[in-house]
Amino acid sequence: MNPEVVSNILQKHRDVRDGLISILEDIQSQFGYLPSEALKIVADETGTSLVDIYGVATFYKSFSLKPRGKHLISVCLGTACHVRGAPSIAEEFEKLLNVRAGETTEDQEFTLETVNCLGACALGPIVVVDGHYFPNVKRTAVAEIIARTREGIDKIEVKTDKRVFPIEVSCQHCNHSLMDSMNLVDGYPSITVTASFDRKHGRLSMSCLYGSYNVASEHVLPPNTVLNLFCPHCHADLSSGTDCSICQAPMVPMIVRGGGMVQICSRKGCKNHMLDLSGINL
Amino acid sequence: MINLTINGLAVSVEEGTTLLEAAQSLGFPIPTLCHMEGLTPYGACRLCIVQIGQDEKAKLVTSCTYPAQEGLEVRTASNRVLKARKMIIELLLASCPQSKTIQDIAAKYEVRQQRFKQEYEDCILCGLCVRMCEEQMMAKAIGFRGRGETRSVGTPFDVKSDVCRLCGGCMYVCPVCELRCTYNEPEKAICGACSNLSPPCVEKEPFDDMMCYMDPCVVCEIQK
Fold first, then answer.
1. Domain stops at, among A106, A128, A151
2. Pair (A44, A76) in one structural domain
């Protein structure tokens, strides 16, 4: 634990009196739990006694004094989930993860906890992993949930998620395809352009999945950087005269195969985009 | 001055006086457990309940925390009060049947039945020790931890507190002696009364199963 991190958090809350819970929340989000040394520093610097801080930290369920795993699995044991067999699901998790409810696996990957109601009784028995809801869980599905969590729960399921679909684009100047089947992003050929910022030039591969913001870049792209994007074939500047309606950075249009136009914002972190398929014949 | 009636007797008290103080000044007995002069009223044990108001509007309040109000009609021993108080004593007795203090109160108020399962808890969470530590000893070494079923009294992280001076004040006020002697685990010791005895208990043989109930601890003497 780094004492400086705690001091910075305390510095941030210096002007707010009685901000103990906010301070503890920030410490927990930083370390994943509340280290005892951190609580002692908070006691010393705020003048609140350690007894009171410890009382608050043990009172609220969202605070943990023990290190928690990377993934938090919450199994609902509310009445509706209970009658539909939630206890056996909790039991299955305990068996497969080899921990009891409230404990963390030895590899610090999973923390298992039971909750008393998630307010989604119609979907019961329900399990929430890192904010991702799994409805109508059956005992047999528990192993799959654990496997999917290990893989990464935010991974987009292209085949089942209808909001996500691949598009193919080409340069609006030379009409050369920008698709790059050598560099895959999200398992699909990427849209590859040349990106330049701050005297650096490099390849930037973007996911071709409409709805995914995953990119692979040669250089590390600092957040909020406005990138100049160029066609890797004709080297023309891809940006148009229009500006992003959210952040005023130039928009970058590309021609969608089959007709239409997609525009993306050139600022790293801004997710503004437009898809115009008016020319397409369905 | 505030005028109110207690059990039909008119009385005038200074502003800020609690109903408990007003009733006791007139000589009406009200049992208390978590109340102690010199400590802030807490209202945890509910033993000191009295009835205020009339007829349908009458309600039960803890007299130790309720300030006297102009024109208030207080009854300290109505049937409703006595019935509720008996129930409270019965519940307290069920959670800590081994406590001498609670046994005495039960005997005094003629609680002769035990309808609830005896829990033999170590603590009734009256908060006397916590207030003693903070308000009289200026230490704040112990406090409440957790909530609901798992609420307990002790030091942060269950290790000996830096600010504890082993004064034993918490042991002295405890009605059920929650803070059992932990001198055989010096890192957790809070009381330390036995080390002040001569010879100290720790030097005595059957040390493991001793429990320090009051200062001075005499368990080892009794066991002889």
1. A151
2. no
Angle, helices A36-46/A50-59, rounded to nearest 10 degrees: 130
Tell me what pLDDT residue B222 has. 45
Question: Do A235 and A264 belong together in one domain?
Answer: yes
Under CATH, to which class is B2-86 assigned? alpha beta
Q: Which fold has domain B128-223?
A: Alpha-Beta Plaits (3.30.70)
Residue B188 pLDDT class (50, 70, 90 cuts): low
Look up residue A137 and give its amino acid. V
Note the ipTM here. Answer: 0.77
Residues B39 and B132: beta-carbon distance below 8 Å: yes
Q: Among B58, B45, B57, B133, which residue's Cα sits nearest to residue B92?
A: B45
Taking the Cβ of residue A175 and every Cβ of chain B, the question of whether any pair is shorter than 8 Å is answered with no
Residues 38-97 of A with CB under 8 A from B: 39, 49-55, 58-59, 65
Instruction: Select the residue of A52, A53, A58 nearest B146 (Cβ to Cβ).
Output: A58
Query: Does A157 reside within a domain?
Result: no
Q: Is residue A281 part of a domain?
A: no
Q: How far is B34 from chain A (nearest CA, A)?
A: 20
pLDDT confidence tier of residue A263, bands split at 50, 70 and 90:
confident
Query: What is the number of structural domains in chain A?
Result: 3
Query: Of all helices (H) and strands (E), which one includes residue B22?
Result: helix B19-26
Q: Do A55 and B157 touch (CB under 8 A)?
A: no
- Any domain includes A65: no
Residues A263 and A197 in one domain: yes
pLDDT at res. B194: 52
pLDDT of residue B93: 92
Same domain (yes/no): A186, A257: yes
What tens digit of pLDDT does each residue of A15-41 get?
776 789 999 998 988 888 899 999 999
Chain mean pLDDT for chain A: 86
What does the domain layout of chain B look like in residue ranges? 2-86, 128-223
Which residue range forms the structural domain that includes residue A106?
71-151
Closest in B143, B161, B163 to A55, CB measured: B143
A50 and A87: one domain? no
Q: Which of residues 6-45 of B touch A (CB under 8 A)?
A: none
Q: What is the mean pLDDT of residues B49-66?
A: 93
Cβ within 8 Å of A, B 141-170: 141-147, 155-157, 161, 163
* pLDDT tens by residue, B121-155: 878 899 998 999 999 988 888 899 999 988 988 88
A124 plus A203 within the same structural domain:
no
SS (H, E, C) A209-258: EECCCCEEECCCCCCCCECEEECCCCCCECCCCCECCCCCCEEEEEEECC
Q: At what angle do helices A50-59 and A20-31 cross, to 10 degrees?
A: 70
Q: Which of A60, A74, A61, A68 is nearest to A29 (CA)?
A: A68
How far is residue A19 CA from its own chain's centroid? 28
